[in-house]
């Protein structure tokens, strides 16, 4: 009988929330249940995962209060938040000291990006870099194709969510993924192998293999995307782990991904 796979050391992508939190006016869905930090930690413990990264959910916009309270209580967690681009260096430094590692950036697919060469955007990403924080992107393919080259000379680390493919048309041949590969080659970009259940099942292994070949394990992070908003009835935490073991079958590679995520988020 073969031994069970070693679980990841860190889950680099999950969301926590309660029904008391305010939804944005444009929230794409409005969950009518709670997934508090205690439930997330229980899922981690039940599956042998030691550390977690709370990722800002677009549903709640810049309401980061619950995440910050969770960080204050649990040293095994880190987080990203959503922020106004005019946030000043003192607030960024305070957030970094609380365990916030980066800022998540997500806009509707039909929305225009800000002026990427303009002062306001360049000031924002420069302040992130100065604070030792990263920019996390969940964008469409055309948006990624514009954003990633514009970030190349800023010195800010970039993390691209969900294989770089969740919101990108054209799959691995599309403009977003092509831009992602170019950005990976420059050495300041990482990718989350997360939310595989939202992508074509038959293509997941190919996506993972391509990213491993282009970026190496040291630039890939695994994330569950718990609590699987919009897919709660068909996905469990155990299933996200089973998918990870299947699409990245080599245990040493999976461990290298965990080590990379630990370094990135905790050290």
TrEMBL record:
Domain of life (superkingdom): Bacteria
InterPro entries given in the database record: Amidohydro-rel (IPR006680), Aro_Compnd_Degr_Hydrolases (IPR052358), Metal_Hydrolase (IPR032466)
Amidohydrolase-related domain: residues covered: 10-267
Pfam families xref list: Amidohydro_2
PANTHER family, alphabetized: BARREL METAL-DEPENDENT HYDROLASE, PUTATIVE (AFU_ORTHOLOGUE AFUA_1G16240)-RELATED
Protein name: Amidohydrolase family protein
Organism in which the protein naturally occurs: Sphingomonas plantiphila
């Amino acid at each position: 009988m073969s031994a069970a796979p070693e679980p990841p050391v860190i889950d680099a992508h999950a969301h926590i929330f309660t029904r008391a939190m305010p939804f944005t006016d444009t929230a794409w869905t409005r969950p009518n249940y709670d997934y508090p930090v205690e439930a997330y930690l229980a899922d981690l413990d039940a599956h042998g995962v030691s550390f977690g990264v709370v990722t800002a959910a677009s549903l709640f916009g810049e309401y980061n209060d619950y995440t910050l309270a969770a960080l204050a209580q649990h040293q095994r967690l880190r987080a990203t938040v959503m922020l106004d681009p005019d946030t000043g260096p003192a607030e960024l430094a305070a957030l970094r000291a609380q365990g916030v590692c980066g800022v998540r950036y997500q806009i509707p697919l039909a929305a225009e990006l800000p002026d990427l060469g303009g002062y306001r955007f360049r000031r924002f990403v420069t302040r992130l870099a100065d604070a030792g924080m990263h920019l996390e992107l969940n964008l469409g393919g055309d948006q990624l194709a514009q954003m990633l080259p514009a970030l190349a000379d800023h010195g800010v680390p970039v993390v691209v969510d969900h294989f770089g493919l969740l919101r990108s048309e054209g799959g691995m041949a599309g403009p977003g993924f092509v831009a992602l590969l170019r950005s990976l080659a420059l050495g300041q970009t990482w990718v989350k192998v997360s939310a595989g259940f939202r992508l074509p099942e038959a293509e997941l292994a190919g996506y993972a293999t391509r990213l491993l070949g282009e970026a190496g394990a040291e630039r890939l992070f695994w994330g569950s995307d718990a609590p699987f908003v919009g897919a709660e009835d068909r996905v469990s935490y155990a299933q996200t782990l089973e998918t990870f073991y299947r699409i990245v079958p080599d245990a040493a590679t999976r461990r290298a991904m965990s080590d990379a995520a630990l370094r990135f988020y905790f050290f």
